Amino acid sequence: MKSLWLILSNPRYFGVAWVFTSINIWFGTWAIYIPTVKEKLDINKADLGIALFCLSLGVFTIFPIASKVINKLGVGRASWYGVIFASVTAMLPLMAPNYYLLMAALYLFGASNGFIDIAINTLVTEIEKEDKQNFMSAAHGFFSLGGILVGLGSFLIPVIGNPVLHMGITVVLVFIVNFFLKKHYVHVVAAPVEKEPFSLKLFKPLLLLGIIGFVSFGAEGAIVDWSSLFLKEMTMAPEMLIGAGFLAFSTTMTLGRFLGDGISAKIGPIRIVGLGALIAAVGFVLVLTQQTAWSIVGFALNGLGFSVIVPELFRIGGNVKGVDSSQGVAFIAGAGYMGFLLGPVILGFIAESASLNYSFILLLCMALLVFGITFFLRRRKNS
């Protein structure tokens, strides 16, 4: 909890952590109004799926150029500009008067989210180097807290009664906090890196980190999308417990991220990724017992295990020798988002053609793969 106290007691760190919270508040507030937008524009599920793909397309479009823009502007200033960009684009989807403008709005919203995600993770990496403090995992914990705030804000839906007004109030309040905190990080620039010419030796660790990112993000997305259905269909859980798996996953995810920095400082980032993968694998074994109580405990272990992996990946990726921190973060973010988008789809296809049980067996194998990759990364680091 040292890193949590560090964030809460120092505006230099809280300002950065609040940007993580802001990202999830913007996105979550849009997400709770998706059914409203679908009804307002009178579109079917297929059309909605295409519109949401435009959001993902915006995220991926920004990845190839984000690192160059961040290095040109300076990572602190780029993070602040990202906050402004995301504040504006968060309003657009709910204001779209027709389907085609909704697609354009979601594309811009996705691009802003992709940019701020890379910028802020790079910023944390640079501040950690500069201050010799670890708070990446706790900062991601504040992202999780953003989701909790959105959940609480959803109770205001009948009171406010207008999606655009709800988002507008949210954007203004979040922006005001960011405006007063930006002075604590806007001056930060990335430390110069002695770049090395491209080689397989240089690319190999990034490729392995990308694979871990793809698997980890994909597993998170799958649990968010499929945990309730697994409890309902595979364990025959009563209706009141169908959402318990996701709740357990989210709770331990938040807790694990607040504890992760201290453990990482003691055993190292690669070891904690391996430990997280092992805990997640044990969780999947419990999920696959198809006993409601044990499956819920398994989802809790999944949350605890995966909680530390993603923050540590950004930390490691931002410190790869011979690679700009922004480029390393962008590569891992790209691979991770691809897993987040494709993972649930692949698992859904397996569930449809075989069984949801086989989907979670695949997730177990992927967790063990991540555990195995960490052995290779540790050996390379020691050589």
Helix share, percent: over 70%
CATH architecture title of the largest domain: Up-down Bundle
Q: List the secondary-structure elements in sequence, H or E.
A: HHHHHHHHHHHHHHHH
Enumerate the spans where pLDDT stays under 50 for 5 or more consecutive residues. Answer: none
Percentage beta strand: under 5%
How many strands? 0
- Class based on secondary structure composition and strand pairing: mainly alpha
If you average the pLDDT, what whole number results?
Answer: 88
CATH class type of the largest domain: Mainly Alpha
Fold-level CATH name of the largest domain: Growth Hormone, Chain: A
- CATH homologous superfamily classification of the largest domain: MFS general substrate transporter like domains
Largest β sheet strand count, sense and barrel closure:
none
Q: Descriptors for this entry?
A:
mainly alpha; 16 helices; Growth Hormone, Chain: A; globular; 383 residues; 0% strand; 2 domains
What do you see in this structure?
It is built from 16 helices and no strands. The protein is an all-alpha fold. Helix 5 (75-89) runs antiparallel to helix 7.
